[in-house]
Amino acid sequence: MAAPYHFRPMTTADLPQIRRWLALPHVREWWGDPAEQYALVSGDLDEPAMDQFIVAAEGSDLGYIQCYDLTAWNSGFGKQPDGTRGIDLFIGEPDMVARGHGSTLIRAFVEERLAQGAPRIVTDPDPANARAVHAYAKAGFQEAGMVDTPDGPALLMIRDK
């Protein structure tokens, strides 16, 4: 898939769409309680260590991605190089799932961050989320082992320059 992706900084105007996406079954399955997640996502708008984006392609918004400074959270990811960023995302629009967007938008986003100087990008999908694990692997992430997170066991995946 060669769709060009645009990562637009999220604003309060995007919150109704975020709330709608979080309530959809395919997002809720992996992100959990929509009200709890909405409170976290909306609360992070003013968090300096968190960058939030709406992902658009083909002229339409299709998902959400957050990119954060690991030093701001006790992530449980072990020692990482200074400047390492963590990412989490979801494709919100149901008709955009399983169309190749995941790995290509991850690759595009991560390559931008690495080009801007981040030495490493990490993520921690649920190991049972085969679609996410595959998308990250296809985008160049390597499995680095299981980690314990506040949300339970996760698969640490790493992408270096």
Walk me through the structure.
The protein is an alpha+beta fold and 161 residues long. It has one domain (6-160): Gcn5-related N-acetyltransferase (GNAT) (Aminopeptidase). It is 31% helix and 31% strand. Strands 1-2-3-4-5-7-6 form a 7-stranded mixed beta sheet, covered by helices on one side. Helix 1 (15-23) packs antiparallel against helix 3 and helix 4 packs across helix 5 (130-138). It is globular and about 35 Å long. The model has no long low-confidence stretch (mean pLDDT 90).
Notable features of this structure?
161 residues; alpha+beta; Aminopeptidase; seven-stranded mixed beta sheet
Count of discrete alpha- or pi-helical segments spanning 4 or more residues: 5
Helical fraction: 25-40%
The average pLDDT is 90
How many structural domains? 1
Reading side by side through the largest sheet, how are the strands ordered? Answer: 1-2-3-4-5-7-6
Structural class: alpha+beta
> Major β-sheet, in short?
7 strands, mixed
The CATH homologous superfamily is named Gcn5-related N-acetyltransferase (GNAT)
- The CATH architecture is 3-Layer(aba) Sandwich
